[in-house]
Design goal:
The structure holds three protein chains of three kinds.
Chain A: H1 9-17, H2 23-36, E1 43-46, H3 48-63, E2 75-79, H4 106-113, E3 117-122, H5 161-168, E4 174-179, H6 185-191, E5 194-197, E6 217-222, H7 225-235, E7 265-269, H8 279-294, E8 298-302, H9 310-325, H10 343-354, H11 357-370, H12 375-396, E9 402-406, H13 415-419, H14 423-427, H15 434-439, E10 443-450, E11 456-463, H16 468-482
Chain B: E1 4-6, E2 9-22, E3 59-60, H1 61-73, E4 81-82, E5 85-88, E6 98-101, E7 111-117, E8 120-133, E9 137-139, E10 146-150, E11 157-163, H2 170-187, E12 199-209, E13 219-222, H3 227-246, E14 254-259, E15 264-267, E16 280-281, E17 288-289, H4 292-300, H5 306-315, H6 321-327, H7 331-340, H8 346-363, H9 375-386, H10 392-405, H11 409-416, H12 424-437, H13 439-446, H14 452-463, H15 470-483
Parallel strand pairs in B: 13-14
Antiparallel strand pairs in B: 1-2, 2-11, 2-12, 4-17, 5-6, 5-16, 7-8, 8-11, 9-10, 12-13, 14-15
Chain C: H1 5-14, H2 21-38, E1 62-63, H3 73-79, E2 83-84, E3 87-91
Antiparallel strand pairs in C: 2-3
Classes of the chains: A alpha/beta, B alpha+beta, C alpha+beta.
């Protein structure tokens, strides 16, 4: 009997089509694995009844010869930032701990329309603010990769840490994530899975709890580049609700995976190799460069001169937008309310109680950089530097087809190590992901090697705007060349 | 020039108005909920309006069109590039915690409104028009210790029209507001209904000594919601400031509320910290780009604007600028007037509209649209005077009956037998009788007391129940006197 | 940069947050150090550089003037912490 929880989506789809397995069987296998995997705390809300109903409907369609496509019957998880009609959506916060949206986000609706089965809602950093899931009100998620002592002591990264851990541990076949400054790519790297942040404007943001509107992008996480291509194909596309989403046709991303990247020019940015770059990461990067060269790509040294400024620019802009986006959580219409004698007291009590400290820190910072007397010095300056960063990429893409760089500066860190870090130290984890976020460019993260201690290390492929096809094509070649087919030790229930 | 005399000299006023006009559109500016007024609480509300998580705004194209139209009405520059900003503040009627507005790049730039008062015609500068969303409403008296929130109005499109501080008298400010209302009504971009709050006004007032060029701190007086209140609020606030200065005090820039009952302005309860709205470009929306073709297309299809109408009334119909501005102040009046003048003397019709008709409407608290006297009938009444069918005096009587019954004047004249007597034989006989009965007075006239002729005319009119054409009566009286 | 006690009070008040003294001190120190770190942006010559508001080069999408939403009073009130007769209820707003 095939081990259903280690299959790739493409493989499972094949078995479903051949009717060798049913969607209900596939779903039940994952529900059982989820139960065993609860020690990881990947899910905030499991929806087994909904999953089985979805799976039964899928089997009926297939039996009737009207399957919806390759994703029909595939069990997935949704990051708990996506509003799901009738299913609690918390953004991993106390503020929304009991919020049941009466509407569905566009992306999860599209996935539903493609026939996927929803297993539940997975953990994230609170309001997607963080890189470890440690800011979740529902507790941390554990990285299914263990430390040298075999203990679950490592963070899965974040904010899409629940998605990454669930995918890595076989608790779902794929998951939605969201990426504002690296929230798909960094946890993908930490957990040894694949994830793509598409171009800003590729997927609708409608119904996704907003963090920073000019940066937030939905994207898939899965166990292969092809699976990401399949999921992204279903998630992407124009949407009448989102004014910033592109009115562009969605290419057949899976069809772009030709396996032939001969002659493609791959840029290697020198600024991503600062003095003191983690040796393990540098080694995997060098390996990736060699593998692409071996595959016939032309490796070109490039410069993205404003790279080092991306982090502070990102934190100013993201926090500014967040401070405004999170004003709606005020205890009047749908959040938990903590009473107060006056309206302002009620606001203060509700907001101080409902937000965790990282969220509060970012709201305070964001409010400050927008306030009178500081707006030009911080916010406007950050926007100017953001243009320079954007221009860096535009210029690079005049000569290269894509860029290869590390996804995260280190392999997965331990909770203990992270607890000791200052806010600025934790922000440094986004050093390689924020530049492409600020530029709005698509970027894929995939595991390419292991550290000396046996932890996965991912690389990212950054592409031109709306050219996810090339990014996925190169990623597919790199994935096959790297032969990274390791998964973490199976969780013992 | 309008000045206020104080103990220490003459003061002049510097006035600017910020007017919020609710845009006439079916749906709200950023959501598909109805923008209609007066529905049951929280029914014209979508999840977008209520600021639910993950909800996003999307611009209603009609609201953009209405702004551009209004921009033309204000003789203003239409900006081909505009953008939305968030104005951040917390209030229970503002679900998102910010209002989407346009601070940095408004859709309409500088323009002007031509304002005619008894002192003459002046151009009052318009600084800008920007598109924004309205807030909801709160109700404070229904549940003790609580406020209730209705979000029906929340998200309705607003045009905020900011004038330059170009006005110097209450009358000028009042007229600016009237003209602005006439413009938006003529264009169909706002119903201009100040009672229902679809047009709301904040007044900026400062005073300075005549001859001073620098501006002194101004007070922003909020919620002054009728033309009359605007004029009152300006007078009261100016006087308050003058009193402070003349008693050796200083004014500070502040926000005040107009109290129309006690006729005073009061300081708004000020928060511990001054508001800092932290405006920044709304990342949920991209810029609004208007093509020249789009703008030109709107321009071509504009209805006649009050100002053009006014010019036409003066140049083609021979009205005074003041009368023309009154008749063009709203679409209904202008339409009424233009219907009434068909085939009639426009100046005479204008006098009837602004005189008897306005007086009647005022007295009976009716709008011109509710007038029982149809425009075409008022014109006909003027026609009956012109062709000598009835006298002006009889016309007043006919007018009263028209107001009561709604009948056409010709019908009334016929029914009541009010036609002027033009049969000279009959009139001569009448005059002969009157003269015969008053020979003593005839003798006095003969002796040179010409004034008595008037008395005879009066007698003739009385005896004929006013039906004799007065000119004819005079003429025949002279003839008969000479025969005596 | 000094993000001092007055600044944090002002900013917290603007954001409608309020915390005990010890938390205030912690947040103050955190943000002060973040702002120190952000200072490096001053090195960048941004003369003549237009601020980047959105990476999207396009204009905003528009919707037709059609009423196709609303009339969900019951759903709105079902989510509300406090409501009466279809109104949201908040502590009395004074003015």
């Amino acid at each position: 009997m095939t081990d259903l929880v280690t299959l790739h989506i493409a493989e499972a789809a094949d078995l479903l089509n051949k009717k060798e397995i049913s969607a209900v069987e596939l779903t039940n296998a994952h529900l059982a694995e989820m139960e065993k995997g609860r020690i990881l705390n990947a899910y905030i809300t499991e929806t087994p009844e909904r999953a089985l109903a979805d799976a039964e409907a899928s089997d009926k369609r297939r039996a009737a010869g009207s399957a919806l496509g390759v994703l029909d019957g595939i069990p997935i998880a949704n990051k708990d930032l996506y509003c799901t009609a009738g299913v609690r959506t918390t953004a991993a916060s106390k503020m929304l701990a009991n919020f049941v949206p009466p509407y569905e986000s566009t992306v999860t609706q599209k996935l539903k329309d493609a026939g996927t089965v929803m297993l539940g809602k997975v953990n994230t950093d609170q309001f997607a603010m963080g890189g470890s899931t440690m800011t979740s009100y529902f507790g941390v998620t554990k990285n299914p990769w263990t430390d040298e002592q075999g203990a679950y002591s490592l963070v899965p990264g974040g904010s899409s840490g629940g998605s990454a851990a669930a995918v890595a541990a076989g608790l779902c076949m794929g998951a939605t994530g969201s990426d504002t400054g690296g929230s798909i790519r960094q946890p993908a790297s930490f957990c040894g899975v694949t994830g793509i942040k598409p171009t800003y404007g590729r997927c609708s943001r409608y119904g996704i709890v907003a963090f920073a509107s000019s940066l937030d992008q939905a994207g898939p996480m899965a166990r292969s580049v092809k699976d990401c291509a399949l999921l992204l194909g279903a998630m992407a596309g124009a949407d009448k609700w989102d004014s910033t989403v592109a009115e562009l046709p969605v290419p057949d991303f899976a069809a772009a995976l030709t396996g032939d990247i001969r002659g493609k020019k791959i840029g290697i940015p020198k600024e991503y190799r600062p003095a003191g770059l983690n040796e393990q990461v540098a080694k995997v990067w060098d390996k990736g460069i060699q593998l692409l060269r071996d595959a016939g790509a032309e490796i070109v040294d490039i410069s993205l001169p404003h790279t080092k400024y991306a982090l502070p620019v990102y934190y100013i802009i993201a926090c500014a937008e967040a401070s405004s986006n999170l004003s709606r959580y005020d205890g009047v219409r749908y959040t938990e309310r903590v009473p107060g004698a006056t309206l302002d007291e009620m606001y203060e009590n509700t907001r101080t109680d409902g937000f965790g400290s990282e969220v509060i820190r970012r709201i305070l910072l964001g409010t400050f950089v927008l306030s009178a007397g500081f707006y030009d010095a911080y916010y406007i300056r950050a926007q100017r530097v953001r243009r320079l960063i954007y221009d860096d990429f535009q210029k690079a893409f005049e000569t290269v087809d894509a860029i290869l760089a590390p996804a995260a500066p280190t392999p997965a860190l331990s909770y203990e190590a992270m607890k000791r870090m200052s806010p600025v130290d934790t922000y440094l984890g986004d050093v390689f992901t924020t530049p492409s976020s600020l530029a709005g460019a698509p970027a894929l993260s995939l595991p390419v090697g292991l550290s000396d201690t046996g932890l996965p290390i991912g690389l990212q492929i950054i592409g031109k705007h709306f050219d996810e096809s090339t990014v996925l094509q190169i990623g597919d070649v790199l994935e096959k060349a790297a032969g990274f087919d390791l998964t973490p030790r199976r969780v013992k229930g | 020039m309008y000045t206020i005399q104080g103990k220490t000299g003459d003061w002049e006023l510097v006035i600017g108005l910020e007017v919020h006009c609710q845009i006439l559109s079916k749906a709200k500016v950023f959501s598909g909920a109805s923008a209609e007024f007066g529905a049951e609480q929280n029914t014209h509300v979508s999840f977008i309006d209520a600021g639910f998580p993950g909800m996003l705004p999307k611009v209603n194209e009609k609201c953009i069109e209405q702004c551009v139209k209004t921009g033309f009405g204000l003789n203003a520059k239409i900006n081909t590039f505009s953008r939305f900003d968030r104005k951040n503040y917390f209030y229970a009627d503002l679900p998102q915690g910010y209002q989407i507005s346009q601070l940095y790049y408004p859709i309409v730039g500088e323009g002007y409104i031509e304002v005619t008062t008894e002192e003459g015609t002046r151009r009052i500068g318009v600084e800008r028009l920007h598109l924004e969303q309205d807030a909801g409403k709160s109700i404070h008296d229904m549940v003790p210790g609580k406020s209730l929130i209705d979000l029906n109005r929340c998200g309705v499109g607003l045009m905020e029209i900011v004038s330059k501080p170009d006005m110097h008298s209450p009358a000028e400010a009042g007229e600016y507001l009237r003209q602005l209302r006439a413009i938006v009504r003529a264009l169909g971009t706002c119903d201009g209904n100040m009672d229902e709050g679809s047009m709301r006004c904040d007044v900026n007032v400062s005073v300075r000594k005549v001859g001073e060029t620098a501006l002194r701190p101004r007070a922003e007086v909020k919620n002054v919601n009728s033309v009359r209140f605007v004029m009152q609020a300006i007078e009261i606030e100016a006087q308050r400031q003058i009193d402070i200065y003349e008693n050796g005090g200083e004014c500070r820039q502040e926000t005040r509320l107009f109290d129309s009952v006690n006729l005073e302005t009061r300081p708004m309860r000020s928060k511990e910290n001054a508001n800092d709205y932290r405006y920044f470009p709304d990342p949920d929306l991209l810029p609004v780009i208007l093509t020249d073709e789009y703008i030109e297309n709107i321009r071509r299809n504009l209805p006649e604007l009050p100002e053009a109408k006014k010019k036409r009334y003066v140049e083609e119909l021979g009205l005074t600028p003041y009368d023309a501005s009154i008749l063009t102040a709203d679409v209904e009046t202008a339409t009424y007037f233009e219907t009434a003048i068909q085939g009639q003397d426009a100046k005479k019709v204008a006098n009837w509209v602004m005189g008897d008709l306005f007086a009647y409407l005022n007295k009976s608290a009716k709008t011109i649209a509710e007038s029982p006297i149809r425009a075409i009938d008022l014109g006909a009444l003027v026609g009956l005077i012109a062709d000598g069918t009835i006298s002006g005096k009889i016309a007043k009587e006919v007018f009263e009956i028209m107001a009561e019954t709604g009948k056409a004047p010709a019908v009334i004249v016929e029914e009541k037998g009010l036609k002027q007597v033009s049969d000279t034989g009959a009139i001569e006989a009448l005059i002969a009788d009157i003269l015969a009965a008053n020979m003593d007075k005839v003798a006095e006239i003969k002796a040179g007391k010409d004034k008595l002729k008037g008395w005879f005319v009066g007698q003739i009119m009385k005896a004929s129940q006013g039906k004799v054409n007065p000119a004819l009566a005079n003429q025949l009286l002279d003839k008969k006197l000479s025969e005596v | 940069m000094s993000f001092n006690e007055q600044t944090i009070k002002t900013v917290a008040n603007l954001a409608r947050l309020r915390f005990p003294k010890e938390d205030e001190a912690k947040f103050m120190a955190d943000i002060d150090s973040i702002l120190d770190w952000v200072e490096q942006l001053k090195e960048v010559d941004v003369t003549g550089v237009e601020p980047l508001v959105s990476v999207s080069p396009r204009e905003t999408a528009i919707r037709a003037d059609e009423v196709r939403d609303g009339n969900i009073q019951a759903e709105l009130m079902a989510n509300a912490p406090e409501s009466v007769q279809g109104f949201y209820v908040v502590p009395r707003m004074v003015e």
